[in-house]
From TrEMBL:
Keywords: ATP-binding, Nucleotide-binding, Transport. Pfam families: ABC_tran, oligo_HPY. It comes from Ruixingdingia sedimenti. The lineage of its organism: Bacteria, Pseudomonadati, Pseudomonadota, Alphaproteobacteria, Rhodobacterales. Belongs to the ABC transporter superfamily. This is ATP-binding cassette domain-containing protein. It is a peripheral membrane protein. The keyword DNA damage does not apply. It is found in: Cell inner membrane. InterPro entries: AAA+_ATPase (IPR003593), ABC_transp_ATP-bind (IPR050319), ABC_transporter-like_ATP-bd (IPR003439), ABC_transporter-like_CS (IPR017871), Oligopep_ABC_C (IPR013563), P-loop_NTPase (IPR027417). One of its GO terms (molecular function) is ATP binding.
Length: 281
């Protein structure tokens, strides 16, 4: 049996709180409690739950940004926190991120060319200049932007186009895993559908796996194969997306499903219509 691309094994994460007084001991808050999840290559796993449940903390642990106090994060069978700084740097090309704010995540002082190529320059500096340029054109066209966009700045694009730039930036190293933290929540509803459709097309084209963080069950129905429901730092329910949302077993999952408008609560949403020309976004 092929090993999963990503394995999260008994991961716990603590934060130290400020001292209540000069002589008091600092208190420790446990944000993640023994999380266990797996993600096969080419599939999408959603993490859903209300704000403060630990979704983004888990994403940072998976990205190698915050080491857990307990447990392991395995990518391609390797414990990313046992590799050391140099070993982790060598593995970073295998995973990239897309963030919530498509404007705040892009440096407004840099051209699209420099923004998109930055991960390649940092993680694969040996890449020849000609290959960098061909990769740049490839990822821009893959997300629906023309090569001419490379010489423009983020403020010259709409919100949906800026998120396409962020997706191109995530693709440039040819990763296997993309961690998407609320990537469409800042976009208009019509643009959300276009970006989700694009992400599904890219998943098929590049055999990507997504760890998709969101509080939106409608988005999860569109993009994920499986979903894990988090509450107060614990995974309370996990399984195929349709099964979890159509027949929730945990009271908290039922609460989430009941809060969704009824037309979307009990059935899988249709795949969004094909994206229009990028200028419409």
């Amino acid at each position: 049996m092929t090993a999963p691309l990503l394995e999260i094994r008994d991961v716990a994460r603590d934060y130290t709180l400020p001292r209540a007084s000069l002589l008091s001991r600092p208190q420790v808050l446990r944000v993640l409690h023994g999380i266990n999840l797996t993600l096969p290559a080419g599939q999408s796993l959603g993490i859903v739950g209300e704000s403060g449940c630990g979704k983004s903390t888990l994403a940072r642990c998976v990205m190698g940004l915050e080491a857990p106090q307990q447990g392991r994060v395995m990518l391609d069978g390797q414990d990313i926190y046992a590799l050391g700084r140099r070993g982790l740097r060598g593995l970073r090309s295998r995973f990239q991120a897309i963030f919530q704010d498509p404007y705040g995540s892009l440096d407004p002082r840099q051209t699209v060319r420099r923004i998109v190529l930055e991960p390649l320059a940092a993680l694969q500096p040996e890449t020849p200049a000609a290959d960098r340029e061909s990769r740049l054109i490839e990822v821009l066209e893959a997300v629906g932007l023309s090569p001419a966009a490379a010489d423009k700045y983020p403020h010259e694009f709409s919100g949906g186009q800026r998120q396409r730039i962020a997706i191109a930036r995530a693709l440039i190293t040819r990763p296997a895993l993309i961690v998407a933290d609320e990537p469409v929540s800042a976009l208009d509803v019509s643009v959300q559908a276009q970006v989700l459709n694009l992400m599904m097309d890219l998943q098929e084209r590049f055999n990507l796996s997504y760890l998709f963080i969101s509080h939106d069950l409608g988005v999860m129905r569109v993009i994920t194969d499986r979903v894990a429901v988090m509450h107060l730092g614990v995974v309370v329910e996990e399984g195929p997306t349709n099964e979890v949302f159509d027949n929730p077993q945990h009271p908290y999952t039922r609460k989430l499903v009941d809060a969704v408008p009824k037309p979307f609560a009990g059935r899988r949403m249709r795949r969004p219509a094909p994206s229009p020309a990028p200028s419409a976004v």
